C-alpha cells in the first residue's frame, strides 16, 4: 500500500465522487449484506435458543441446518396469499412494503470501514455519508411504525388492531429515550455524521466515557424493534400474532424481514455510536497499525454487529414478556428521566471543559459528589414518607385490586346435589347386618 493510499485511508469518508458502477455495486453489496445477515440471524437464533433449552434446533436442511431460514423464505414466498374480506386492500398491501423498504434504506449511512481502493478508485466503505446521518436513521425507524399501525388497522380484525395500537405507543415511547441517549454522543463528537462519529472515537470508545447513554440505548433498541421481553405488539399468548395475524405468504415474510433488518440496523448503529465503529477492538490498532486499514475493519465491524445480535437472542431465550403497564412505566418514568439527567451532566461537563478549562478529573470528582448527595437524599426521603404512611394507615392497601383474604367461593349452581339419606350415617355396622 503506497503513501497516497495510506493518507486516503486515514481521512474521513468522502462520498459523492464515485462512478456509477461503483455506486451500483455498493447498493447491491449493502442489500446482500442485510439479506445474508437476516438469514444467518434466524438460524443462529434458533440454534442458540435450542442450545439454551437443551435441544438440537434446526439440523436437517443444509450442513448443520444452516439453510433452514432460506428454505423457510422460499416456502413463505410460494404459499397461498389470502386477503381478509373486511380488509382495506390498498392499505393492507402497502403496509408490509413500507416496513420492509424503510428498514432496508436505513442501513445506507452506516460506515463499514475506512477509505479503500477499488479498481484504482479510492472510495469509502459506505453507501452514502449524510451530514445528518443519525437523524436519517431515526427518521427511518420512525416511519417503520406506520407499516405496523396501518397493517393492524387495515386487517379489519380486533387482534391486529390492538397490536397496531400497542406498537404505536411502544415505539413512540422508546424512540424518545433512544433519541435522548444519542444526544450526548452528538455533543461529544460534535457532528451528526456517522463517519465523523467513528473518527471521534479514535482514542477512546464512547461506551467507556458515555456508559449511561449506552445502557439506555441498548434497552431502547430492544423496545424499538419489538423484541422480547418487549414484544407487546405481537404477544402470541393474548393477541395470537398481533399486527400481522391476518397476513400470510410474501406479505408476512416482508414483516419478518423488516424485523430482522431493524435488529441489524440498530446493532450496527450501536457499534457506530458507542463501540468505535469499524475500529479494531482491544487496542489492537496500537499493536498492529494495519488493523484499521484496507478491508480488515469490515471484519471488526461485523464482529461487533454479531455480538449485538447475540444479545437480542440471549434476551429472548432468558426473559419473560413484561406486563404492558410495567413496560410503559419503565420507558417514561425510568429511561426518559435518566436520559435527561445524564444529558444535562454531559452538557455541563463539556461546557466546563471548553469554557472554564476544568480538567476531566476535577469534573468527575464534582459529579461524583453531586451523585452521592442525590443518592443519599433519595434513600432518606422515601423512608420518611413510608413511615408517615404507616403511621396514618397501619394496613396500607396495594394499588392493584386484590381479592379479600377471607373469600369463600360458592358452589357452582350447575353442580348436581346428591340428597343424603337421613340417619344412614348414624347406624352402626352391627345394626346394618341385623
Description:
It is a single chain. This protein has 434 residues and is mainly alpha-helical. It has one domain (3-324). It has helices spanning 3-9, 20-52, 68-77, 89-105, 133-154, 158-189, 194-200, 206-209, 211-224, 236-239, 249-274, 284-287, 296-318, 324-355, 360-392, 429-433; strands at residues 113-118, 121-125. Strands 1-2 form a two-stranded antiparallel sheet.
Topology summary:
Blueprint: H1 3-9, H2 20-52, H3 68-77, H4 89-105, E1 113-118, E2 121-125, H5 133-154, H6 158-189, H7 194-200, H8 206-209, H9 211-224, H10 236-239, H11 249-274, H12 284-287, H13 296-318, H14 324-355, H15 360-392, H16 429-433
Antiparallel strand pairs: 1-2
Helix pairs in contact: 2-11, 2-13, 3-11, 4-5, 4-11, 5-6, 6-9, 6-14, 9-11, 9-14, 11-13
Number of strands: 2
Domain unit count: 1
Order of helical and strand elements: HHHHEEHHHHHHHHHHHH
The end-to-end distance, rounded to whole angstroms, is: 116 Å
What general outline do the C-alpha atoms trace?
globular
Helix content: 55-70%
Round the Cα radius of gyration to an integer and report it: 29 Å
Q: Which structural class matches the secondary elements?
A: mainly alpha
Q: Low-confidence runs (pLDDT<50, min 5 residues)? A: 1-10
What is the mean pLDDT?
83
Order of strands across the main sheet: 1-2
Percent range for β-strand residues: under 5%
Alpha plus pi helix count? 16
| Main beta-sheet annotation | 2 strands, antiparallel
Amino acid at each position: 500500500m503506497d503513501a497516497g493510499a495510506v493518507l486516503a485511508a486515514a481521512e474521513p469518508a468522502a462520498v459523492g465522487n464515485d462512478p456509477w458502477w461503483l455506486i451500483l455495486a455498493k447498493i447491491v453489496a449493502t442489500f446482500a449484506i442485510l439479506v445474508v445477515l437476516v438469514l444467518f440471524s434466524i438460524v443462529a437464533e434458533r440454534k442458540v435458543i435450542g442450545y439454551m433449552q437443551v435441544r438440537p434446533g434446526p439440523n436437517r436442511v443444509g450442513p448443520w441446518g444452516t439453510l433452514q431460514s432460506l428454505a423457510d423464505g422460499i416456502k413463505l414466498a410460494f404459499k397461498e396469499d389470502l386477503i381478509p374480506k373486511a380488509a382495506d386492500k390498498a392499505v393492507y398491501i402497502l403496509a408490509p412494503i413500507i416496513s420492509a423498504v424503510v428498514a432496508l434504506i436505513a442501513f445506507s449511512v452506516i460506515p463499514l470501514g475506512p477509505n479503500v481502493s477499488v479498481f484504482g478508485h479510492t472510495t469509502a466503505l459506505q453507501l452514502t455519508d449524510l451530514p445528518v446521518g443519525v437523524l436519517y436513521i431515526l427518521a427511518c425507524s420512525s416511519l417503520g411504525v406506520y407499516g405496523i399501525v396501518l397493517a393492524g388497522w387495515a386487517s379489519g380484525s380486533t387482534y391486529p388492531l390492538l397490536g397496531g395500537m400497542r406498537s404505536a405507543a411502544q415505539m413512540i415511547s422508546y424512540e424518545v429515550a433512544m433519541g435522548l441517549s444519542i444526544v450526548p454522543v452528538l455533543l461529544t463528537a460534535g457532528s451528526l455524521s456517522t463517519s465523523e462519529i467513528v473518527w471521534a472515537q479514535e482514542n477512546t470508545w464512547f461506551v467507556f466515557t458515555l456508559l449511561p447513554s449506552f445502557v439506555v440505548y441498548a434497552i431502547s433498541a430492544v423496545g424499538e424493534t419489538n423484541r422480547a421481553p418487549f414484544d407487546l405488539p405481537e404477544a402470541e399468548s393474548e393477541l395470537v400474532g398481533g399486527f400481522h395475524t391476518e397476513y400470510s405468504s410474501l406479505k408476512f415474510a416482508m414483516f419478518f424481514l423488516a424485523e430482522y433488518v431493524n435488529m441489524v440496523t440498530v446493532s450496527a448503529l450501536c457499534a457506530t455510536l458507542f463501540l468505535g465503529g469499524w475500529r479494531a477492538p482491544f487496542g489492537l490498532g496500537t499493536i498492529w497499525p494495519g488493523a484499521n486499514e484496507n478491508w480488515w475493519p469490515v471484519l471488526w465491524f461485523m464482529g461487533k454487529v454479531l455480538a449485538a445480535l447475540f444479545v437480542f437472542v440471549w434476551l429472548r431465550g432468558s426473559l419473560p414478556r413484561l406486563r404492558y403497564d410495567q413496560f410503559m412505566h419503565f420507558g417514561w418514568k425510568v429511561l426518559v428521566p435518566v436520559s435527561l439527567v445524564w444529558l444535562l451532566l454531559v452538557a455541563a461537563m463539556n461546557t466546563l471543559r471548553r469554557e472554564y478549562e476544568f480538567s476531566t478529573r476535577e469534573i468527575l470528582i464534582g459529579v461524583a459528589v453531586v451523585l452521592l448527595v442525590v443518592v443519599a437524599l433519595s434513600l432518606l426521603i422515601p423512608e420518611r414518607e413510608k413511615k408517615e404512611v404507616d403511621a396514618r394507615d397501619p394496613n396500607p392497601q396495594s394499588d392493584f385490586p386484590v381479592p379479600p383474604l377471607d373469600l369463600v367461593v360458592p358452589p357452582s349452581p350447575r353442580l348436581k346435589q346428591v340428597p343424603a339419606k337421613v340417619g344412614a350415617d348414624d347406624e352402626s355396622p352391627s345394626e346394618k347386618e341385623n
